[in-house]
């Protein structure tokens, strides 16, 4: 069986299956987006699906450095939303709601 693509989290440098990571992309127009479907063009950076890693990249401005771009604070809130969303989905995976 083939292994799925592995990518490194830019906060903790752990290699993970890319489907377990959140991809952040700077698209050709210079916009910073969360690539929820994994199919956006542009320079990408990966982060674990957890708040600790998010806090780490906020403190160090790691996303800005990796993507060579100024990061609007709003994107951090968006990423936080995605992480929380995913957490709830996992917890509720056996419930219908
Ligand atoms: Zn991480």
> What oligomeric state do the depicted chains represent?
single chain
- Compressed to H and E, one letter per element, the order equals EEEEEHHH
Strand arrangement, largest sheet? 4-3-5
Which molecules are bound in this entry?
zinc ion
Count of DSSP strands: 5
Q: Could you tell me the mean pLDDT?
A: 91
The H-level CATH homologous superfamily, spelled out, is YlxR-like
CATH class: Alpha Beta
Spatial gap, N to C terminus: 34 Å
Give unreliable regions as ranges.
none
Structural class: alpha+beta
Keywords:
about 100 residues, binds zinc ion, Hypothetical Cytosolic Protein, Chain: A
Describe the structure.
With 97 residues, the chain is an alpha+beta fold. The chain has one domain: Hypothetical Cytosolic Protein, Chain: A (2-Layer Sandwich), CATH 3.30.1230. The protein contains three helices and five strands. The strands form two sheets. The chain has a three-stranded antiparallel beta sheet with strand order 4-3-5. A two-stranded antiparallel sheet has the order 1-2. A hairpin with a 5-residue loop joins strand 3 and strand 4. The longest helix is centred in the C-terminal third of the chain and has 19 residues. The radius of gyration is 14 Å and the shape is globular. The protein binds zinc ion. Zinc ion (ZN) binds next to loops.
């Amino acid at each position: 069986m083939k292994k799925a693509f592995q990518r490194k989290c830019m906060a903790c440098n752990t290699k993970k299956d890319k489907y377990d990571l959140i991809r952040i992309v700077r698209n050709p127009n210079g916009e910073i987006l969360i690539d929820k479907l994994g199919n956006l063009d542009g320079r990408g950076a990966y982060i674990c699906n957890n708040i600790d890693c998010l806090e780490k990249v906020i403190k160090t401005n790691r996303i800005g450095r990796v993507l060579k771009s100024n990061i609007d604070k709003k994107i951090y809130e968006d990423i936080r939303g995605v992480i929380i969303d995913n957490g709830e989905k996992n917890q509720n995976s056996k419930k219908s709601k």
